[in-house]
Amino acid sequence: LLGSDGALSPTIFAEMSALAVKTGAINLGQGFPDEDGPVEVLDAAKRAIDAGLNQYPPGIGMPVLREAIASHQARFYGLTPDPDTEVLVTVGATEALAATILALTDQGDEVVTFEPFYDSYAAMIALSGAEHRTVALRAPDFQPDLDELRRSVTDRTRLILINNPHNPTGTVLSRETLALIVELAHRHDAIIVSDEVYEHLTFGVSHTPIASLPGALDRTVTISSGGKTFNTTGWKIGWLTAPQQILQAILAVKQFLTFVGGAPFQPAIAAGLELPDSYFRGIALDLAHKRDVLSAGLRAAGFTVSEPRGSYFVVADAAALGFSDAAAFCRQLPDLAGVVAVPISAFVSDENKGEYASLVRFAFCKRVEVLERASAQLASL
Ligand code: PMP
Ligand code: GLN
């Protein structure tokens, strides 16, 4: 699993952020915001530290956060998980993914994901001993071919692991695709794992959790995180909601990964989840503007751009600028334009890298002036 191309090779995010620090280039590689989140959330964490919430919290998560997660699901999606038995707090969505994959798969099981896929999926599937099968998302709209999806899910499939809205393509899956996933999960007795960390970051479309579709709830694990919604990626407060029996299996693994995490940040994320609707609308509108600024800059620089409908990433094709190898292009980009980005090949299995070879991911969760400066620098390409 180790080695330069193995599932556990160093993550692209560490490499590219180090390159940004070393060269002083603008970091549009690793996805993290360059501004703090809401003051209500920051203040709640400070108050929690002052109030002495600095020891191990309960393994399943603090009641105040589990209740806030359940209320948030009810407010936005009409879902009503039981905060005592169907909500689990984790160390970021990363741990929720890790514990879920390790708990629910055995050697030889198959896990189906879309491709490109978030890099930790392949690593955790490899660590669990399961087989990874992929369904391609292809430019320009990155929607899956439904026949390919039908063919990929079989009786060997244990998990259908989706990410919606999708990193790195910015795709939002259609209701038709979500309904087919539920149907296939029933037909082949698979569990759906849905990574929805970008649930509030959609542009002109609303987010539909797959758990809200008829027949889905009993076999779906929904994963999210406070990092993206409250600009607190460094706090690593994530969570999942799942039927009680499935959650118990995941908790059995989670207790030996980290036991618990982030005591003072848990009530702070709870305060965030209780912010009024206007906050959540506001972050999506703000980000839509940032997407437009960077997309326009990339187009003006000569890239072919796929318009994302969610997440904080935009995919640009460097082939139009004469660069056919995005990995080599990203290594040169700090020198060429003072910008760091990430090649899509980092989210693709070895055998399919060719198809995505010239595609680059840029993060637009940055201040508008930073995006404008990056655009001006990219114009020199
Ligand atoms: N899933 C996806 C699709 C992501 O983009 C990320 C990273 N931001 C994560 C999971 C990990 O989230 P966290 O930082 O909460 O662990
Ligand atoms: N999820 C973020 C991204 O895709 C950061 C990931 C990370 O640093 N592990 O850029």
Report on the structure:
With 381 residues, this protein is α/β, with parallel strands linked by helices. It has 2 domains: 12-30 and 278-378, Alpha-Beta Complex (Aspartate Aminotransferase, domain 1), CATH 3.90.1150; 39-275, 3-Layer(aba) Sandwich (Aspartate Aminotransferase, domain 2). It is 41% helix and 15% strand. It contains 13 helices and 13 strands. The chain has a 7-stranded mixed sheet with strand order 2-8-7-6-5-3-4, sandwiched between helices. A 4-stranded antiparallel sheet has the order 9-10-13-12. A hairpin with a 6-residue loop joins strand 9 and strand 10. Helix 4 (92-104) packs parallel to helix 5 (119-128). The two termini are 37 Å apart. The mean pLDDT is 96. The site of 4'-deoxy-4'-aminopyridoxal-5'-phosphate has 14 residues, from helix 4.
List keywords for this structure.
binds glutamine, Aspartate Aminotransferase, domain 2, four-stranded antiparallel beta sheet, globular, alpha/beta, 381 residues, 2 domains, Aspartate Aminotransferase, domain 1, seven-stranded mixed beta sheet, binds 4'-deoxy-4'-aminopyridoxal-5'-phosphate, single chain
The low-confidence parts are none
How do the helices and strands follow one another from N- to C-terminus?
A: HEHHEHEHEHEHEEHEHHHEEHEEEH
Mean pLDDT: 96
β-strand percent reads 15-25%
CATH fold-type name of the largest domain: Aspartate Aminotransferase, domain 2
List the ions, cofactors and other small molecules found in this model: 4'-deoxy-4'-aminopyridoxal-5'-phosphate, glutamine
Q: How many beta-strand runs?
A: 13
Protein name: Aminotransferase class I/II-fold pyridoxal phosphate-dependent enzyme
Organism: Lacisediminihabitans changchengi
Family: Belongs to the class-I pyridoxal-phosphate-dependent aminotransferase family.
Pfam families: Aminotran_1_2
